[in-house]
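Hello,

Our lab assistant flagged a job as stuck in the queue for most of the afternoon. It eventually completed. Since we weren't sure the result was trustworthy after the delay, we are filing this so someone can double-check. Below is the sequence as submitted and the structure that was eventually returned. Let us know if re-running is recommended.
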Amino acid sequence: MSDMAVDTTGIKNIDSIQTGELCKEAMFFAKDLMKENAYFISKIFMGGTFNEIVAEGKKYFKEVKVFKPKSSRKDSKESFIICRKIR
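-- returned structure --
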């Protein structure tokens, strides 16, 4: 599970892209270490790289879902990507 995020700048596009790159790197690292039915969960922000990250997840995992916790503020762009069953 990755709850990593970069220090935010207040510029939503930049923050989204930088955190998206961090999410992708965590996914690439984890996929090489995971067993078949393991889960990869990471913080993800809605923004310019969101669809790219979900597409990357679908390349490496059989199941990919995006989840926004009820505890997250409605105006927050924060969600989590949940990936399961490595390909």
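-- support follow-up --
The delay was a queue issue, not a problem with the job. The result is valid. The chain has one domain: 12-86. The beta strands are 39-45, 61-67, 78-86.
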